Amino acid sequence: xxxxxxxxxxxxxxxxxxxxxxxxxxxxxxxxxxxxxxxxxxxxxxxxxxxxxxxxxxxxxxxxxxxxxxxxxxxxxxxxxxxxxxxxxxxxxxxxxxxxxxxxxxxxxxxxxxxxxxxxxxxxxxxxxxxxxxxxxxxxxxxxxxxxxxxxxxxxxxxxxxxxxxxxxxxxxx
Length: 174
Description:
Elements: E1 10-15, E2 23-35, E3 38-53, E4 64-68, H1 75-78, H2 82-85, E5 88-92, H3 93-113, H4 139-156
Antiparallel strand pairs: 1-2, 2-3, 4-5
Protein name: FabG, Dehydrogenase with different specificities (Related to short-chain alcohol dehydrogenase)
Region (Disordered): 108-174
Organism: Penicillium digitatum
C-alpha cells in the first residue's frame, strides 16, 4: 500500500459476495521505522481482517471501529489541540452493517435502473483514446476568425480603436 504523510489511516472493508455475506475490516496507519540503518516510512496493519458481519449477514459481537480525531487532521492542524485529537469516534459492528446494507440496497436499485448497456469484455484492458491533434486552419480561415474577433472587440468597448493593421497606413486614429 502506498502512503503519503497526509494520510493518517486507511480503512478497508472486505465484502465477500460469493455465497456469503461476511465482511471484514482492515486498518492501516503510517509509521516510521529504521530498517538496516535507514529510516523508512511505511504502512502498518493495525487491524487485519476483523469480521464485523457474519456469513448470514448479521453483525458480529464486540467489533468496534475506533478512529480518533487525529486520524482526520494533519500534524500542522493538530498542533495545540492534542487533548481534543485523542477523542475517539466509535462505530459498532451493527452500525457498520447498517451502513453496508444501506449501500448494498442503493447499489442494487442503481443496477436495476441502468437498463441495457454495453459492457467491456472480461479481461479486456481499457486504454485512453489518442489525443486529438490540434486543428490546422487555412490562412483564409485564420483571416475570417481574426476579422470576427476584431468586430466583436469593437462592439464590446466604446473606447476601442482598431490596431494599426486596420487603421490608416500612418497608424493615426480616426
